[in-house]
Amino acid sequence: MIAEVGHYALILALGVAIVQTVLPLIGTRLRDPQLTAVAVPAAQAEFILIGFAFLALMTAYVTSDFSVANVWQNSHSAKPMLYKISGVWGNHEGSMLLWVLILALFGAAVSTFGKNLPRQLQANVLAVQGSIAVAFLLFIIITSNPFMRIDPAPFDGEGLNPVLQDPALAFHPPFLYVGYVGFSMAFSFAVAALIDGRIDAAWARWVRPWTLAAWMCLTLGIAMGSWWAYYELGWGGFWFWDPVENASFMPWLAGTALLHSALVMEKRDALKVWTILLAIITFSLSLMGTFLVRSGVLTSVHAFAVDPERGVFILAIMGVFIGGALVLFAWRAPLLTQGGLFAPISREGSLVLNNLLLTVACAAVLVGTLYPLALEALTGDKISVGAPFFNLTFVPLIVPLLIAMPFGPLLAWKRGDLLAAAQRLTAAAVVSLAVIIVVLALHQNGPWLAPLGIGIGVWLIVGAATEIAYRVKMFDASGEEVWRRLRNLPRAAYGGALAHAGVGVMVIGLVATSAWREERIVALAPGGSVDIAGYQLTFKGVAPRIGPNYRERVGTFVISRGGSQFTVLHPSKREFTVERSTTTESGIHNGWRGDLYVVLGDQLKDGAFSVRVYFNPLVRLIWIGALVMFFGGAVSLSDRRLRVGAPKRARTKAAMATGGK
Using an 8 Å Cβ cutoff, are 255 and 218 in contact? Predict the structure, then answer.
């Protein structure tokens, strides 16, 4: 019965979403406050109904109700509870339900916390958000119903894909979806502004918190997916330039550009048309990611195995929303007033450079991702575009951006002094140069560009600290004055500096593990050993072990350094009998220099085992940097000036008159 109730809740949510789309738009056109006001309760009711449907599906999973086809296909009575719950979104139908739930959550948040928004803008935003919900609720109900029954009900289920039975994969999709779907709010604000034909600095203030929240979650979601791939897939790497990885990375690049563009618009009332276009592009890339994962055009560990007909439905949704938004943009954009002027050397100019490099880099990733698909569709030829292409196109665009990044916050608005900013960054340059020299001395055999990459990472970290020091006059004022400025500095300033420093930490990890990674592939019998990066690994043999819903063969490797044993690693091969598949569980030791990474392979004819051993220097800095970026975003989001429910225009003007105090 719970499945039927969940299905009916989805149908009711579709009806409410139609009301949320149609009546507020009519109300704003007729200037009818009663019809306009329908948007708020409709958005809240839609969220409640979809939330109820989601809880109904989760209940079916928790109770192992195998009369529901979705539960039978993706769960098993012996599966641990965590994976019964995460199995709800570990499949196409359930993940789409989570998709629309997050979409409705953002709409309900705007309706609940956006009370200081102008009523007409709020109604139009919620109407656009409702129209997206209508499209995807139709998609779920018509093609991807998660509540389909089986009669008679099977005794047990087929289980969840074993590679998804992992804590990181339990939380990776929700964070990723909050990022993907969260950009729909920026899209809705952009379309609403185009419908109204008005856009100003207050609009940028209102849209920034939602964009920042989506960007934070997408950052964390991508990092969690990378971490999972690193330790679960057993190949020792953290990024493969997989098309589905790229599908999440492209909205992140565009969303980063959007955040900085909205800042220019808020502070200087400039880049209006460009910011609107970026908001449309960012969510369009999110929709494209949804299409790539669910269309059947990709074969990937990340992709859902679905039929192409569903992909055609999503392609039609993309055509309606992306095409419609771009047509509206082409019609309305020339009518939007232009903002203030600024010199090329200024804070605005640095952010324009930021946008230019990020969007071109995003375009390079887009070409590399879609070209093989387009070529196969047109000619039938299959090619693979891998890391060499992306390294040659993406990296040269990002390096200038990283070098320029510390300059931007030190330049004044409207007209800046590049020489003065460079002088303030002297300490950062000296420290970075010293680090480059030290790294060159330690690694005299190359690769020669790696020390420069490490220096750029240090440049970003020290540059972020320099920004805070400059803003509080650390070396130009008394201690009491510096402390007062530290207390009164906006949280957004701390958040931005943290995010930039996080990028620096990540760059150091990326460069170090890419340049100085070591690898050994050997056949080891019990008692055999292998040396790598100053470590000695001695293989003691393999023993069987039984898990909750799997059997595994666990290897034992004693790790020594300098003749002294200090740890034992236990990589394994797991066999899931229900799913009839095998996974590799790596053994990882995290030291201050990097990760010692051991993978147990198959047994060979002579009784030895194939063993792969990697040493990945400073690889953890990649995910630590991502966490620092996430927390930097959280600190910025906590700034009272960026809180959800931005101040009214009148209050904004008053704040400007008093210097923002």
Answer: yes
